[in-house]
Write a structure and sequence with these properties.
Blueprint: E1 8-11, H1 54-76, E2 80-87, E3 90-98, E4 104-107, E5 120-125, E6 131-140, E7 145-150, E8 159-160, E9 171-176, E10 184-201, E11 204-214, E12 226-228, E13 233-243, E14 246-251, H2 254-266, E15 272-273, E16 276-282, H3 285-291, E17 295-302, H4 307-311, E18 318-322, E19 325-326, H5 330-336, E20 346-352, E21 355-361, E22 364-365
Parallel strand pairs: 8-13
Antiparallel strand pairs: 1-21, 2-3, 2-5, 3-4, 4-7, 5-6, 6-7, 9-10, 9-12, 10-11, 11-14, 12-13, 13-14, 15-22, 16-17, 17-18, 18-19, 18-20, 20-21
Pfam families: PDZ_6, Trypsin_2
Keywords: Hydrolase, Protease
InterPro entries: Chloro_Bact_Ser_Proteases, PDZ, PDZ_6, PDZ_sf, Peptidase_S1_PA, Peptidase_S1C
Length: about 375
């Protein structure tokens, strides 16, 4: 157990904004999703049924749309497998995406819930009829991501993109295996960005940020499948059906790549633990002008005996920055509490009773039970 003396000091200087950049693992394919849309049809105005008229324009638009979807389907569907899994919780099904040339597959953690690392978890069937046995490499329920490895050769990997480049209204294609129907394709648009998805593993609770909302049809069995842009890059892992015309996908971004790298390397993801419950709140106008930020993190609860409690943080403290980086919501704090901060002093700047106070805490490792 790491102890901290709760170093604190009142300070009057402004908060500095230092950016933290995560490294990407060399094992993973990198790529930026340029966010291209389906080609728009063009044509001169004219009477109904005449060349270039409304009827022609509609057909041309449908053809352009169809060309994008069929091209993406042909490019990505061979890399998306239909899963049949067997775990301690029973039999199940889902989808998975080949994302490396040496047979690693990406899926949703809830698809393989109850499986053990290094133990056969089921089989993958590809669109060409090939079947491969699968082993679980590692799962991270708090991000709803898992990595499998096929025993034997697999189709070429799909290219991973970057969900940070997505725009609302952009065309996306969902590739997966709903209801066990291998190689199914649906299309829609990005309905919204920056949704949140609560996850749980034992007593640990977390929120997955920057979740993608789409109206591309998703059904049971799509979980673990690919959400793909018009240029054929995977920008999301389909994870939930939230309602008719409302599906959610975990984004593929720098955070996802770090998680996948940790799962391949260690079979698990280590996270730091402070022991606080918090909420995003607006800053008082005077404090906002002074710090240059508009929101902070109000501590609703500090767990007794936790790293935060030992450091001298209290309920109702308003956290403004962690390790010099401004925080405006719980997701910001989660992203900063990485494996690298476990057992190392981390300075938090808080607003307390009209003064800026620096508190130094030493995070423990989050225990997953």
């Amino acid at each position: 157990m790491f102890r901290n003396r709760g170093t604190r000091r009142v300070r009057d200087d402004n908060i500095q904004d230092d950016n933290i950049h995560g490294d990407q693992h060399d094992h993973l394919p990198a790529g930026q999703a340029p966010g291209r849309h389906a080609p728009a049809a063009s044509g001169a105005s004219g009477g109904s049924g005449a060349p270039g008229g409304p009827a022609d324009l509609g057909d041309a638009a449908l053809d352009a749309y169809s060309r994008v979807v069929t091209r993406v389907a042909a490019q990505v569907a061979p890399s998306v497998a239909s899963l049949r899994v067997r775990t301690s919780r029973g039999a199940g099904a889902g989808s998975a995406i080949v994302f490396t040339a040496d047979g690693f597959l990406l899926t949703s953690a809830h698809v393989v819930e109850g499986a053990r690392s290094g133990v056969p978890v089921g089989t993958a069937e590809f669109t060409d009829g090939t079947e491969r046995d699968l082993d679980l490499v590692g799962a991270d329920p708090l991000s709803d991501l898992a990595v499998l490895r096929a025993r034997g050769s697999t189709p070429a990997p799909a290219a991973l993109g970057d969900a940070a480049a997505l725009r609302v209204g952009q065309l996306v294609v969902a590739v997966g295996n709903p209801l066990g129907l291998t190689g199914s394709v649906t299309a829609g648009v990005v309905s919204a960005l920056n949704r949140s998805l609560p996850t749980r593993s034992g007593s640990a609770v977390r929120v997955v940020d920057e979740v993608i909302q789409t109206d591309a049809a998703l059904n049971p069995g799509n979980s673990g499948g690919a959400l793909v842009t018009a240029d054929g890059r995977v920008v999301g892992v389909n994870t939930a059906v939230a309602g008719i015309g409302l599906g959610l996908a975990v984004p593929v971004n720098a955070t996802t790549r770090r998680i996948l790298a940790a799962l391949i390397r260690d079979g698990r993801v280590r996270r730091a633990y402070l022991g606080v419950a918090s909420a995003r709140v607006p800053l008082p106008s005077g404090l906002a002008d002074r710090t240059g930020q508009r929101h902070g993190l109000r501590l609703a609860e500090v767990v007794r005996g936790s790293p935060a409690g030992r450091a001298g943080l209290f309920a109702d403290d308003l956290v403004l920055s962690v390790a010099g980086t401004p925080v405006a919501g719980p997701g910001d704090l989660q992203r900063l509490l990485t494996e690298d901060t476990i057992g190392h002093p981390v300075e938090l700047t808080v607003w307390r009773r009209g003064a800026l106070v620096d508190v130094v805490a030493v995070p423990d490792e989050l225990a997953i039970r």
